Amino acid sequence: MKEEEIESMRKVFHNLKGRIEPLIKSPKIQALQKRVIDIRKDAIDNNEELIAIAKESFKENDIDCFYANDDEEAREILLDLINEEIEKSNIDRNEVYIAKSKSNTLREIDASQFLEEQGMTIVETDLGDRILQLKKDDNSPVHPTGPASHLTVHDIADIVNESMNLDLPAEPKPIMEAVREDVLNLIDKSFIGISGTNSIAAEDGAILMVHNEGNISFHHPEVYRPHLLLLLCQTKDEHTDSSQATC
């Protein structure tokens, strides 16, 4: 990374720290944080049992669940499911747009590159990831929660203007509005949605996804089907070595 990119990241996370510090010092939030840590530890300790319960609960809720032992198997499951839908719809593979959100989970199994190699077009719908996608070159994310935090607003304006043939000022609001409109148009063209998930409630067979941009709402099955959801499970040694793909 360039020195100016590192400095940009420092500023972003310094500002973020100032905004969230009062919140995380709250006794209620600290108690909630401890509760979440305890739940997560218990889930890891009882991983196999909870996976078995979740599979049965998904079945009862008419959610198809597929379990993969590693990244490669997870990618193949995703591809098989997408191919099934392509065959049903009788469309050209090169015309398939896939709207993608909650990108960290999918990035861990290299899903985007794999599907693009099959001739499909991946549309990043998370704002930071979409900006990096528009950048085309040297566009690896630099942080899980701030993938484009190394870019200044001037950098982002240049990227958006060049890729969309616009002349926007280096101001957050017009940039955000332009990228949002672009993403919504591409979601309308999308044949399928793929999202990472935050967690599942095994006994309920429920899937939890947390977002702050609104993009996942447009991936809902009422907008288009199917919506593939991916969850990575951790083992006791805290190494992620198994995946679940559900749709």
Question: Can you walk me through this structure?
Answer:
Mean pLDDT is 85; it is low at 238-247. Helix 8 (153-164) crosses helix 9 (172-189). This protein has helices spanning 3-24, 27-45, 47-60, 71-89, 103-108, 111-116, 127-135, 153-164, 172-189, and strands spanning 65-68, 97-101, 121-124, 192-196, 199-201, 206-208, 227-234, 240-246. It has one domain. Strand 5 and strand 6 (206-208) form a beta hairpin. The protein is an alpha/beta fold and 247 residues long. Strands 1-8-7-4-2-3 form a 6-stranded mixed sheet, sandwiched between helices. It has a two-stranded antiparallel sheet with strand order 5-6. 51% of the residues lie in helices and 16% in strands. The longest helix has 22 residues, at 3-24. The protein has 9 helices and 8 strands. The radius of gyration is 19 Å and the shape is globular.
